[in-house]
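Please go through the protein record below and see whether the fold suits the sequence. Record follows.
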Amino acid sequence: MDERDDDKRKVPAEVVWQGKYQRMMVRGTWEYVERAHAGGLAAIIIAVTPDDDVLFVEQFRVPLQARTIEMPAGLVGDIHAGESIEVSAIRELEEETGWTADHAEVLMIGPTSSGSSSEKIAFVRATGLRKVGEGGGDGDEDITVHAIPRASAAAWLARKMGEGYELDAKLWAGLWMIDHTLDGTPRS
């Protein structure tokens, strides 16, 4: 690590505003947001059904004032403290899409927007999918589930973008991870 990084770590962080779910922090000249609860980690779930359909969710996002297309996702440990990433991912998958998984594998963890937030996201591959309900989210969510054939998923996403939907940029990484390992080799 660079010595300049150590200098930035020595400056104490100050909470300048806190709401129910997020707080605004200042550390030296940096302003950023962090989660007030749940440890600042979210999971994005890469899920392909037995029919080779990729699961996407559509919902209105207040900060964007627009409908978005995303992969299923949610906070880790927001309901059950200490819940593992894998268990959280399967719970969120079922809640949002009506599909559950026999297995969840954490592929990587990294920052979502390192210049403005301390939040990190875990890309999780869900396998052994089976339909168990309708999905649609919890009582505060209005989620539409889309099961799109994997072979045409990228074209469908491009079409949705052309229709005015906001697309989560992580979608493209998720699509790539369906067919590749992190070192770039094709997944068997």
In short: The longest helix spans residues 85-97. Residues 22 and 79 are 16 Å apart (CA to CA). The chain has two domains: 3-35, 38-179. The first strand starts at residue 13 and ends at 18.
